[in-house]
Amino acid sequence: MTAKHLHDRRIKTGNGPVRLFLANVARRSTTYPLTTPPMGILYLAAYLRTKFDLRIRLVNQKVENYTTQELAQEAIKFEPDVVGFTVMTPAAHQVGELTRAIRQALPKTLILLGGPHTSAFEEKIFDQAEVDAAVVGEGELAFEAILNAYLDSGDFSEIPGLMWRADDDSVVTNSGQMPLIEDLDTLPMPAYDLIDVPAYWKLQSMPPVARRKYLSLVSSRGCPYQCMWCHKIFGKRFRGHSAERIVDEIEYFTKKYHIDDIEFLDDIFNMDRRRVIDVSELVRKRGLKIKLALPNAVRTDILTQDVVDALADLNLYWCSFALETGSSRLQEFTGKRLNIPKFVSGVEMCVKKGIFANGFAMLGFPTETEEEMQLTIDTMGNSRLHTASFFTVTPFPNTRLYQLVQEQWPERLRNLQYSDTNFATIKVNLSDHPDDVLYGYQRKANRQFFLNPNRIYRIVRDYPQPLLLPYYLPIFLQRATKGFLKRDSQA
Ligand code: B12
Ligand code: SF4
Predict the structure, then answer these.
(1) What is the C-alpha separation between 390 and 24, in angstroms, rounded?
(2) Does residue 310 line the site of ligand 1, with CB under 6 A?
(3) Which of 129, 141, 148, 25 is nearest to 82 (CA)?
(4) Distance 221 CA to ligand 2 centre (A)
(5) How far does residue 297's CA lie from ligand 1's centre (Å)?
(6) Which CATH code for domain 204-489?
(7) Numbered ranges of CATH 3.40.50.2300 in the chain
(8) pLDDT for 38-92, tens place per residue?
(9) Max Cα-Cα span within the chain
(10) Best probe residue, ligand 2, of 119, 219, 225, 360 (max atoms within 8 Å of C-beta)
(11) 121: Cβ–Cβ under 8 A, 6 or more apart, which residues?
């Protein structure tokens, strides 16, 4: 590739709107069917079209069930000026083949990458994919700056924090950082008109409830807690939409799609206590009939009775609660610093209000003892949670956890394979124990938690679709037997 080629791609040639192809890169598999609307590119599209004359095609590979080549062909058929891919690490093994196919067919197209994988792997993604520029963190302002340069000088060197391929083919990371968007209410609502919303209703959403006619929203960005395994895509400061804006979105989308089921994918929807109460009051005042799901978990130890009441008034029917570990030593070690007794009472408050409670826990932190794993299993099991997922700790680059393991126990990262990881069945062992011990505790966790007559009774009584419960039996069996066979534990 000559320097001229590289520079030419950074400047729009020809007239007319910029043809922008955006896609969420992720395969759907029988073992990992969860599909949610691709909020990142829906927000980007909504923002960018207020600034530029664009013709946008937005694709979610997971919904179309395209192979990598089919996705590349879709992009090529559209003849885009600019392509932007969003990808999480488990699907990133596709981006090499994908971007090379597009580059070969459309050598002048500008190819951009962003989203969680880029934020985790940073410059390394240039070794993996044929990319002109890549954005770490929040994307709206950076993408805007890229398109401004593309329509003007082709000079990417002034865009703070941007990673891009320079004319000598080297990868440059500009100094500085793009500012975060202080007032989220200035962002337009996600561009749901660019996707086939009902197509999502036929697929498995995060809450395991079939045929949900729902819409996902994100009401905040940034989380101030310091959990060592977690991303920092949106910085460590909480920024939230106002209650008015949240309820405007709820009202607009529920009316537009004739639905009543809304889920928030926020990291901590309940970070601002007053905001939850205000949303609830506004929904009541406007006479909106909705039900709510919070599948990505609330911060349970800050729940107060008035917030739980407000959530119950919003008809919160499905909520996840993330304990992660029942050991207070590990709560400190990992930086999660959850107050465990308050977790237990927070779950109880919600369950008393008729909310179906799903829990998350992690087993296998470095330094975790067998007693601590058992403590997690007991805390989850003795709580009023209805269902639970017990994960083994998986490190992603650009997190404190990854850095620590890389420094102190690099050999534990040796067999780490991200491709198509499944929440519950990925086999990563960061713990101080052999695989059979760690997976033994994970199997035990599932047995102890679920094979409890009282819990089974409560699940059957409270689960929104009890007749569908047998459908989830294979998933339970898969989890309850993970690593049971020798072949499994060597993976
Ligand atoms: C909803 C969700 C899911 C959904 C799918 C989401 C989707 N996009 O399809 C489901 C439930 C399927 C899921 C699964 C998993 N998830 Co998830 N998920 C989330 C969650 C909670 C919200 C995502 C979201 O909508 N964010 C809001 C939007 C607005 O943000 P965004 O997508 O990041 O986009 C912004 C920027 O990244 C950037 N941007 C994004 N794309 C692009 C593209 C371009 C070109 C540019 C310039 C910029 C740009 O601009 C956007 C707007 O500012 C995030 C946590 C979070 N708060 O983001 C975790 C998160 C993305 N998930 C994560 C993980 C680890 C997983 C799993 C691997 C867990 C597991 N072990 O099984 C699995 C993946 C399994 C698989 N095989 O695919 C990690 C990602 C780590 C990584 N390196 O990829 C996150 C960050 C959580 C964390 N605590 O670290 N997840
Ligand atoms: S795991 Fe949750 S509480 Fe912890 S840093 Fe991430 S988003 Fe915040």
Answers:
(1) 27
(2) no
(3) 148
(4) 11
(5) 14
(6) 3.80.30.20
(7) 3-173
(8) 999 999 999 999 999 999 999 999 999 999 999 999 999 999 999 999 999 999 9
(9) 70
(10) 225
(11) 89, 92, 128, 397, 398
Decide if domain 3-173 falls under CATH 3.40.50.2300: yes
- Going from the Cα of 394 to the center of ligand 1, the distance in angstroms, rounded, reads 15
Q: How far is the CA of 88 from the centre of ligand 1 (A)?
A: 6
- Measuring from each residue's beta carbon to the nearest atom of ligand 2, which residues come in under 6 Å? 223, 225, 227, 230, 267, 299, 336
In the chain, where does the domain assigned CATH 3.80.30.20 lie?
204-489
Of the listed ligands, the closest to the CA of 299 is 2
What is the rounded CA–CA span in Å between residue 55 and residue 81?
Answer: 10
Give the percent of the chain with pLDDT over 90. 86
Q: In this structure, which residue's CA is closest to atom 6 in ligand 2? A: 230
- pLDDT tens digit sequence for 110-143: 999 999 999 999 999 999 999 999 999 999 999 9
Task: Give tens-digit pLDDT for 421-477.
Answer: 665 566 689 999 999 999 999 999 999 999 999 999 999 999 988 888 888 888 778
Q: What is the pTM of this model?
A: 0.96
Q: Whose CA is nearest to atom 2 of ligand 2?
A: 267
For 487, the token pair is: 């072949």
Task: Tell me the best of 119, 220, 227, 330 to mutate to test the pocket of ligand 2, counting ligand atoms within 8 Å of each CB and taking the most.
Answer: 227
What integer is the mean pLDDT of 236-250? 98
Tell me what the pLDDT averaged over the chain comes to: 94
DSSP for 363-432, please give it.
E--TT--HHHHHHHHHHHHHSS-SEEEEEEP---SSSHHHHHHHHH-GGGGTT---TT--TTT-----SS
The CA 115 to ligand 1 mean position distance, Å, reads 7
Q: What is the rounded distance in angstroms from the CA atom of residue 122 to the CA atom of residue 276?
A: 35
Ligand closest to the CA atom of residue 129: 1
Q: Which residue has the tokens 């009401």?
A: 219
Q: Is the CB of 84 under 6 A from ligand 1?
A: yes
Q: Work out the pLDDT band at 33, boundaries 50, 70, 90.
A: confident
Q: Which residue among 88, 212, 215, 267 is best mutated to probe the pocket of ligand 1, counting the most ligand atoms within 8 A of its Cβ?
A: 88
